[in-house]
Structures are given as structure tokens and as C-alpha cells.
């Protein structure tokens, strides 16, 4: 990693003067999420996750998402055949809260709840790239390449310090919030099927930034 990039991720310009980090913006409002999950998944690309969990600041740019669009989505934790359960309760709203669940008894996964209360839809955050807090994420994840620190939903949660304690947390409040970032043009977005599922496998509900090294699977 270049010294300039290291300085940038520490919140300083290459000349040593403080830079203006994008995470000084107000958090995304609940109205941002109160749209179809497919739309929210696309629009979350390029936005910033800001975590101060445990008192350590990490900021990361979202580069990959997946939409789970409602009870009609057979791959969803709230598919009609499953219904409403204690595990998926957060998916039923309100929009703009976190849905955090455990897979394989080991990995936490972070989702942003979308649409309207009572309609179980959410966006899985699959990957992000570190903007600030590189040393924090390496302490949590080990000495892996920078682009791999938040690659994959389980690794992302570990790097950010996210656990089940963040389930139903409002994503406009500390210690975990989502902030606006530079816009991502349609030409930069790759869309295709979701991964790691066995139902509704062909639906094009996965979104990622073309060519970004932090993306978790081949685009």
C-alpha cells in the first residue's frame, strides 16, 4: 500500500494536512431504506459504513450487496414457507434498522432492513473496502491483504466489530451507521445472481462495483 493511501485511510492528505472525510456527512435517513430492497441494494453501493463499536473507529465503503425482497423470495429468511419468527423479526421493519444473524454458528451477517413495516425485506452487505481504521480491522481479522479485510459478509462483520447485539439497531445512530458516499454510476455496477443460496438462485439481485478488489466473488 502506498504512503498516500495509508495517509488517506488515516484521515490525512498526502501532504500531512487533515483531509475532509466523507463520514462527516449526516447518516442516511430512514426514508433512504423505505424503498424496494432491490433499489436500496443498488443505491447502497459507494455509501460508507461507520463503526465505533468497542470505541474503535472503522469506516468502509460498500462495494457489494444482495437484495432479499420479501416473503415471495424463496431465498429469504422470511420466505412465506418460514413466516415470522424470533430470528427474522427485525426484517419486518421499520426500514433503516439492522438485521444481524448468525450462520454456521460462527459468522455474523449484517443487513439493512428495507421497504415498509410488515414487509420482510433486507439488503445483505457482502463486502466493503477500508477507508479508515486499517489497524483496527487487521487486529480483528489478522494480517490479510487490505482488500480482503471486509471481503465476504462474515469477514465484514468481524472487521467492523458487529455481533448480534446490533440486531434491530437503527442505522442512523452510533455505534453503527451508514453515511452517504460518492455516487456510483450505472456503468460501474455489475448485477447478477446471488451467491451461497440454494433457492431463487437465478434472480439478479446481487450488486457490486465493477473491478473492485474487495468484491467477495467473481463478478
Using the 3D structure, state the CATH architecture.
Answer: Roll
CATH topology: 3-methyladenine DNA Glycosylase, Chain A
Average pLDDT metric? 90
Shape call: globular
- Give the helix tally: 5
What is the CATH level 1 assignment?
A: Alpha Beta
Helical coverage, percent range: 10-25%
Which percent range describes the beta-strand content? Answer: 15-25%
Look at the helices and sheets and give the structural class: alpha+beta
Structure summary, number of beta strands? 9
Order of helices and strands: HHHEEEEEHHEEEE
Subunit arrangement of the protein: single chain
Whole-Å distance between the termini?
24 Å
Query: How many discrete structural domains?
Result: 1
| Main beta sheet strand tally, sense and closure | 9 strands, antiparallel
CATH superfamily: Methylpurine-DNA glycosylase (MPG)
Calculate Rg over CA atoms. Answer: 17 Å
**Low-confidence spans:** 1-20
Amino acid at each position: 500500500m502506498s504512503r498516500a493511501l495509508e495517509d488517506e485511510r488515516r484521515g490525512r492528505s498526502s501532504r500531512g494536512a487533515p483531509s475532509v472525510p466523507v463520514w462527516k456527512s449526516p447518516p442516511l435517513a430512514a426514508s433512504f431504506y423505505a424503498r424496494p430492497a432491490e433499489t436500496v441494494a443498488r443505491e447502497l453501493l459507494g455509501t460508507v459504513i461507520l463503526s465505533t463499536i468497542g470505541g474503535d473507529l472503522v469506516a468502509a465503503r460498500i462495494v457489494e450487496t444482495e437484495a432479499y425482497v420479501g416473503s415471495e423470495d424463496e431465498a429469504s429468511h422470511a420466505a412465506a414457507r418460514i413466516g415470522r419468527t424470533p430470528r427474522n423479526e427485525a426484517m419486518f421493519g421499520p426500514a433503516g434498522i439492522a438485521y444481524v444473524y448468525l450462520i454456521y454458528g460462527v459468522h455474523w451477517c449484517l443487513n439493512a432492513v428495507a421497504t415498509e413495516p410488515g414487509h420482510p425485506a433486507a439488503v445483505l452487505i457482502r463486502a466493503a473496502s477500508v477507508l479508515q481504521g486499517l489497524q483496527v480491522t487487521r487486529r480483528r481479522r489478522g494480517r490479510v491483504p487490505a482488500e480482503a479485510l471486509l471481503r465476504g459478509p462474515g469477514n465484514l462483520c468481524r472487521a467492523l466489530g458487529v455481533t448480534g447485539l446490533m440486531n434491530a439497531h437503527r442505522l442512523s445512530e452510533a455505534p453503527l451507521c451508514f453515511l452517504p458516499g460518492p455516487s456510483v454510476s450505472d456503468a460501474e455496477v455489475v448485477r447478477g445472481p446471488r451467491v451461497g443460496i440454494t433457492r431463487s438462485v437465478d434472480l439478479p439481485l446481487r450488486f457490486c462495483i465493477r473491478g473492485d478488489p474487495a468484491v467477495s466473488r467473481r463478478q
